[in-house]
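Re: beginner question about structure tokens

> Can someone show what the tokenized structure looks like for a real chain? I only ever see the sequence side.

Sure, here's an example I had lying around. Input first:
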Amino acid sequence: MKLAFPYDHRDGIAQWGERDLYEWVTDIFECPSVRIGPGCTNDVRNHVEKEFIREGWARDVKLDQDLKLNVFAQKDDLAFQLQTGNMSRAPYDLLKLQYLFQSGRIEAAALAVPTKDAARAIGENIANADRIVRELQLFDRVITVPILLIAFD
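And the corresponding structure tokens:
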């Protein structure tokens, strides 16, 4: 696995940079021992989870107890979401991050997803950075939380 590219939505890169976390969070995706392909999602998730736990991030942070909605990780005023599943889940991820932002629980977020080619290698209809970038551009006035999109392959 390697970092393919970052995408900056509403100064998300600057927000992570101001907290000296931009290089740390993007370096997580420079891991040649994790191979992208069918059945790799557990390896990707386990690797990312280990890195966040090591740095003291809360995991599976609940947005609402009754609905059982959560984000992958949160620390201070930042949230992180990893999506390696079906494309239909990605808009929910954006909605969850926007909710945290509008409720004052975070100031910025990061969302990590495979590139289009990596998503194809993982399986069918997997969330991919290329499509999410286009959706963030389209919904720029709706998704106002600053987001660092991390594309990996």
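Each token stands for a local structural state, so reading them left to right follows the chain. The first strand starts at residue 3 and ends at 9.
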